[in-house]
């Protein structure tokens, strides 16, 4: 009998694990239970879907259903029996497992505000978490002109940007004095707020919401400072909570998430947890990259490819990239240790703050046009030493890797300087050819082969011939 | 008649001249050779590819014709470890034939292997394949093109059903609004091609170069993406991701002309640009700008070359860019498309006519019963006597002299001791052979290991055809006879065939009599099977047979004649009919697949075969310099080129050099798990600080391929030349 692996969850983590297991082959039956009725989709693209740039089919992810993987969408796991090693489902089935992986993800938090306390949210109030949430937002947005977003974190701003791209007037309400406070500093957040304003997103900072009132015309959000904002749509982006209900009911250790070790195993060696629902070394990540790294480790261990594989978390990099916004944040850019590099051009929406300690990047905020952003992310992620010329971290390839030398005036060029790379012709050789009687560009080219390869030095050769002609006429006149 | 055929009527009297093409790279620049007062000179010639340009390699190509190190007599080694000594052709060929018979008697037919080259003419490549399958009846034949074109070839075949490097004329590059070069450095490898890039930019086009180094080509670019080596596939998938989200995918084209898009669409949905950015270091903004430039251009062309292809995931990397091109609707659209830049002089023709392990002439598969029947019919042998597929080049080289591997090897036009990956191991395998035969005109590092060295003619001494990077069949024309003591490869193969089949030696082949280039036969006429070696050594006769063998294949040369080439600046294959048109542009109406549609294949990035670690913390990548060609056997012996590029070097970033305490010009040792090389440091801010580079043109202690990884692509057999893990050490004692 082949090994039975059951994965609860068909989100970014669960679908990825199914793919990783499938890629490694072997005699194994994999069952994936997806509570949502859809194919696996890329949650990261939901804001693009909100923006109306892609259709639902474009956010589908590759899946391996039907290739040794039994994918059951629209089926919710209701209980785990760790003694019988079975999972009960809401369609009345009981599925046996040799190994069970929890990839139940997280749920959007609904803030405890008056007006949001009923079991069903009002029609015009929607969290931003799932594809169904997206559908509900779009259903309202289609006839909306204004939207409010409660929560100025990464996801809230992505939702705001997506809705603004649809042409809605969007306002973000954030209780903290500055946006994305977990990733940014006040100065960077101010630049970001300016960028958002240019994209049609206004921000109300440092003010908690106190109540939500839905009516026939729309939805009203009361603020602690006495203001009351009105819009056609309210999107809630107030954080998420790991979905640990099943694990807790099964008696597994749960704090914020399901506790796992370096191999993503819970206290029950036959049960693992990955992705948003897992708590490893005190941390619940909520990001894709760690979830996928965890899926890989579980696949390596379960298939025997590397029974000793360990999950080693890497410091996360937060990236917000949409038309008009380019933000990267990582590590701890603040503090007093080490060196600090800064660059700010708020008028053009550019801000950079980097912290270096022991020749390694320990934190960075890059906002706007920072050509070195790819380099900075790699140096941080890989812990590689920073360049000796720190300016290249702020200005990117503008430094050190510039192309051809600026055109030197022929008179100042040393004789040994190579003019034609393809045929290795120096300025001295061109002058020598001229002195031996060649008087036109064509004659100098024929005599030296300069410019007969790639041809890109022809202007330089012509310049030198022109200079020699002028110098010659001056000599004649004298 | 623009190809200068009229001037190609030398009579043997000085002065005379002939219109031919450069002996080196796949651009096959037109050149005129002139013999006067005992000297041969080169002049650039107008041809549609080089438009009168030549690089220094081309200008100096004739220097090897009468070079003091040229081989003009066969060499024999009497016992292992002994010295090579001059010998007569009779003795040398007898040694070869006796050796082959002994090995095949003792170990079976497959115990003799053949290794060819991408510089051989079509006639020679074809004759070599026939020699292996009919005279030796061994399945073991492969060639150095496996190290060069195999990944692009395999990706092209599986997507388009046809593998022609450029499916359009080179001139299309000059009119592209956006041109993306991935892992291509033509400013050093084929400089006259840059004229088309210059034209493209002067017309306002956008040139984007993907390369881990700021190469001479990258300096021409409007945008340079500088990814970590081995991450091109992630960049390709992210480019397609952006094209999808921005609505630049040509849905009508995808629906009407392709299959398999849905799987690719779902695959690249997982490659949002920030993910590729973290992996490759290419900023999201640059990925988006590249996708925009390609997706919104009227005419866009994507080209790959060795930088993208020489990986253990080379086929998938090329496929990633093919997927992008297909999604944007480029292939088959006038002025647009996907192509690869072929490397060696006949890298295209050399991969079409049967020197590949799994292949018969006309780009047919050797495991296809219909193909076997057809080719066996042309060769006059029963199809069941043709051997089956052999193994790819590295696998072949790695099996030499081992228990189950070949015991004898015949090498034509290749120098694997320098050009193969993990070269020290390959060198050891060659030493383990019972018999190593090398045909070459210089004593290459491989020839120096041989038991028998056979001196062969150079390009200016032979007629034949070459197929350039555009799939354009060209004429190579002889200026002069080979020197006394030297034979053409075709003559060598003809004599070996004759003797292996029990015939007497036919030494009258040593020199051809009568005027050069006078047709001895009506073109298209072929001798009866079993006719004498004289005919088999005549390239015109061999080409006529090649035409029949390729007829009906993917690469169909049936309608190509030498005269037609002369009259038309070459002929683009497929050209099935003498009276019908050739094919400058492929895919206008259909692709070469059974249903006529191009095929998408979902491809995923995977890590390099060897990743960096604490002991080997740097990425190592290899490549080329302008003044050297391939293993350097030829160009290292040209004085003018040696002056420009006298020795190997290790390129490293000044920051890395600073940490190692190495100054410009000081020797450094590059060490991998497989071996090391020593060369002077060359400091350059144009390379990533986590990566070092060395050119592979040199042997000995400076041999870059001592370091490279022999992991190969599972589809193409391409070794991973472009990335492995190394450490760099300062050399304290020379």
UniProtKB/TrEMBL annotation, chain A:
SUPFAM superfamilies from the UniProt entry: FAD/NAD(P)-binding domain
Q: In which pathway does it act?
A: Nitrogen metabolism; nitrate reduction (assimilation)
Can you give the residue ranges of the BFD-like [2Fe-2S]-binding domain? 419-465
Does this UniProt record's set of keywords contain Ligase? no
PANTHER family (alphabetical): NITRITE REDUCTASE (NADH) LARGE SUBUNIT (PTHR43809)
What is the protein name stated in its UniProt record? NAD(P)/FAD-dependent oxidoreductase
Species assigned in the record: Micromonospora endolithica
Q: rRNA-binding as a keyword?
A: no
The record's InterPro entries line, in alphabetical order, gives: BFD-like_2Fe2S-bd_dom, BFD-like_2Fe2S-bd_dom_sf, FAD/NAD-bd_sf, FAD/NAD-binding_dom, FAD/NAD-linked_Rdtase_dimer_sf, NasD-like, Rubredoxin_C
Q: Which metal ions or organic cofactors does this protein require, according to UniProt?
A: [4Fe-4S] cluster; FAD; siroheme
Coiled-coil positions: none
Similarity comment: Belongs to the nitrite and sulfite reductase 4Fe-4S domain family.
Q: Name one Pfam family in it.
A: Fer2_BFD
Give the FAD/NAD(P)-binding domain ranges.
4-282
Q: Which GO terms describe its molecular function?
A: iron-sulfur cluster binding; metal ion binding; oxidoreductase activity
Keyword terms, alphabetized: FAD, Flavoprotein, Heme, Iron, Iron-sulfur, Metal-binding, Oxidoreductase
Which residue intervals define the domain NADH-rubredoxin oxidoreductase C-terminal in the entry?
Answer: 316-370
* Recorded superkingdom: Bacteria
TrEMBL record, chain B:
- All copies of the 4Fe-4S Mo/W bis-MGD-type domain together span 15-67
Question: Per UniProt, which keywords does this protein have?
Answer: 4Fe-4S, Iron, Iron-sulfur, Metal-binding
Molecular function, one GO term = 4 iron, 4 sulfur cluster binding
A biological process (GO) of this protein is: respiratory electron transport chain
InterPro entries documented for this protein: Asp_de-COase-like_dom_sf, MoPterin_dinucl-bd_dom, Mopterin_OxRdtase, Mopterin_OxRdtase_4Fe-4S_dom, Prok_molybdopt-oxidoreductase
The answer, when asked if Transit peptide is one of the entry's keywords, is no
Q: Which GO terms describe its cellular component?
A: membrane
Record-linked Pfam families: Molybdop_Fe4S4, Molybdopterin, Molydop_binding
The record's section on Gene3D superfamilies has: 2.40.40.20, 3.40.50.740, ADC-like domains (2.20.25.90), Dimethylsulfoxide Reductase, domain 2 (3.40.228.10)
This protein is called what?
Answer: Nitrite reductase
* Species this chain originates from: Micromonospora endolithica
**Which lineage?**
Bacteria, Bacillati, Actinomycetota, Actinomycetes, Micromonosporales
